[in-house]
């Protein structure tokens, strides 16, 4: 598990390291410069003609120190420092004095290059503390840096990218790679910031978890190494009932696909028993496509009785894929929310129906989770899709806190918001997964994990990660253009087979 920090958290951890652990800020700066130069070498960067553009803050101080190290190692370095020197930090001023003592000139603007072009442009203009729009001369400067030939590297974060939410603040440096220090910044992985940072490398500078002083970062992400520790454990002496009973309430008359995908995904996640509750019209299709599933069908007259029976049977409920939004579907969701006594995952059409009266979520007495895509989240919150895209983390977190349930907000990088426990960002997956039925598979995976005994807090981010990794595995065979939702289930099987092989 890796932490992702925002600007406030990073500033606090930096301060804690200097004040509590007595590590001078200038020492951290020197370690940052050393880490950057070392990673430049690993990236096989040609530093023979390097331009380093620095600001007057500590990010600029990092750049000045990098300039010294590269120059002393034999590179020809052009150093440009922009901004009012009277507003420079103490560390920045000291680094400038050191450069001048080594007779390394500091310019105030990028000179017209004659002869050999720059091989490397280093951005050390603004750091993680940038909160205002980049305008005027700074904007022109960043645009010029982007236009110059040569490989481009950013110090800590590309200038113009918000460390908090990945927003482009007026203009932003486009890096081929970014060396970020101590901990990765949220803005490096949120859109559109992630499209500006290139490859992200972490430079160790001596700020470790001890510097949290009890204030753990509010966001993290799962890695594949975390999966074996989080998966439900399977024992030799077990049976199908050992691994949970999941009720999938899905499908509408003549529309059985969502039900089949969700149930198959639940089985692929390890669930022992899956019962599909669906209209009678879907019986033959589902029995043919998925004979492993228990099937419970209903019509208008039998719905209440059948639903009561299956609600009493289930350990976990997945409600919503493909049920439609007519009066019958509305009645169905109402009964589930009113009479269900086990954890429930609400997806797809269930969300569209709940959006008419979201306050009903605050009346639930069982653990619950919503898994909306951006359009569904727009209907749930009243926010526009574009607004949600700009505030993905905040929107998910606010919803989870307000209503007291888990919010899995699906996007290219899905956010899982846990009430009172922070958020998780997911980086697995690919654009081939933007296809019909992908969300049904995700709902089945998460609900299947919960049926096996995982808490919703664990099942939600784990399911999202597994779903993305299954998509990555499937794309290796199909490519992103040909990927279908059913391929994700095959990817799940291959993923688990690979994990078991590694354990063995």
Give keywords:
2 domains; 504 residues; Rossmann fold; twelve-stranded mixed β-sheet; UDP-N-acetylmuramoyl-L-alanine:D-glutamate ligase; single chain; 17 helices; alpha/beta; seven-stranded parallel β-sheet
Q: Can you characterise this structure?
A:
The chain is an alpha/beta fold. It is 41% helix and 16% strand. It contains 17 helices and 19 strands. It has helices at 7-19, 25-42, 58-72, 90-101, 136-147, 227-230, 257-268, 283-289, 303-313, 327-339, 349-354, 374-381, 385-390, 392-403, 438-451, 456-478, 485-503; strands spanning 2-5, 49-54, 76-81, 106-107, 120-124, 151-155, 177-181, 184-185, 199-203, 219-221, 245-249, 273-279, 294-298, 316-319, 344-346, 368-370, 406-409, 415-418, 422-425. Helix 7 (257-268) packs parallel to helix 17 (485-503) and helix 15 crosses helix 16 (456-478). The two termini are 22 Å apart.
In short:
The protein is an alpha/beta fold. Helices cover 41% and strands 16% of the residues.
Helix content: 40-55%
Largest sheet descriptor: 12 strands, mixed
- Per DSSP, the total helix count is 17
Mean pLDDT comes to: 96
Please state the second-level CATH architecture of the largest domain.
3-Layer(aba) Sandwich
| N- and C-termini, Cα separation | 22 Å
Computed CA radius of gyration, to the nearest angstrom? 27 Å
CATH superfamily (homologous) name of the largest domain:
Ribokinase
The assigned structural class equals alpha/beta
The best one-word shape is elongated
Low-confidence stretches: none
């Amino acid at each position: 598990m890796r932490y992702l920090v925002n600007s406030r958290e990073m500033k606090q951890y930096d301060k804690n390291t200097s004040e509590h652990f007595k590590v001078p800020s200038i020492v951290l700066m020197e370690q940052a410069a050393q880490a950057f130069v070392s990673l430049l070498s690993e990236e096989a960067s040609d530093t023979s003609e390097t331009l380093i553009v620095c600001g007057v803050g500590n990010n600029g101080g990092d750049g000045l120190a990098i300039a010294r190290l590269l120059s002393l190692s034999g590179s020809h370095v052009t150093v440009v420092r922009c901004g009012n020197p009277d507003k420079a930090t103490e560390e920045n001023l000291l680094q400038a004095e050191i450069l001048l003592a080594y007779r390394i000139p500091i310019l105030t603007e990028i000179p017209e290059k004659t002869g050999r072009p720059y091989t490397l442009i280093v951005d050390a203009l603004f750091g993680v503390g940038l909160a205002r729009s980049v305008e005027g001369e700074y904007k022109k400067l960043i645009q010029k840096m982007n236009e110059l030939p040569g490989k481009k590297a950013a110090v800590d974060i590309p200038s113009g990218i918000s460390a908090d939410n990945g927003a482009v603040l007026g203009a932003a440096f486009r890096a081929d790679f970014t060396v970020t220090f101590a901990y990765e910044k949220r803005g490096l992985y949120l859109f559109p910031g992630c499209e500006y940072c290139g490859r992200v490398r972490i430079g160790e500078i001596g700020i470790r978890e001890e510097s949290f002083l009890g204030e753990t970062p509010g966001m993290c992400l799962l890695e594949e190494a975390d999966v074996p520790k989080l998966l439900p454990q399977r024992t030799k002496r077990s049976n199908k009932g050992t691994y949970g009973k999941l009720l999938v309430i899905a499908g509408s008359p003549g529309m059985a696909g969502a039900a089949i995908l969700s149930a198959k995904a639940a089985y692929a996640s390890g669930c022992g028993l899956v019962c599909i509750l669906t209209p009678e019209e879907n019986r033959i299709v589902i029995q043919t496509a998925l004979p492993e599933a228990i099937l419970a069908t209903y019509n208008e007259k039998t719905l209440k009785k059948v639903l009561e029976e299956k609600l009493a049977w289930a350990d976990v409920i997945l409600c919503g894929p493909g049920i439609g939004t007519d009066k019958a579907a509305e009645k169905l969701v109402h009964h589930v929310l009113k009479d269900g006594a086990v954890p429930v995952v609400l997806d797809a059409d269930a969300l569209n129906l709940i959006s008419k009266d979201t306050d009903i979520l605050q009346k639930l007495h069982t653990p619950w989770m919503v898994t909306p895509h951006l359009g569904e989240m727009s209907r749930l919150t009243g926010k526009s899709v574009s607004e949600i895209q700009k505030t993905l983390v905040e929107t998910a977190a606010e919803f989870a806190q307000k209503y007291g349930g888990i919010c899995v907000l699906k996007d290219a990088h899905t956010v899982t918001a846990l009430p009172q426990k922070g958020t998780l960002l997911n980086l697995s997956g690919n654009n081939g997964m933007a296809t019909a039925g992908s969300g049904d598979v995700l709902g089945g995976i998460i609900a299947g994990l919960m049926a096996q005994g995982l808490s919703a807090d664990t099942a939600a981010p784990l399911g999202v990660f597994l779903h993305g990794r299954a998509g990555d595995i499937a794309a290796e065979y199909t490519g992103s253009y040909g990927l279908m939702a059913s391929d994700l289930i095959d990817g799940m099987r291959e993923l688990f087979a690979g994990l078991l092989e590694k354990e063995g």
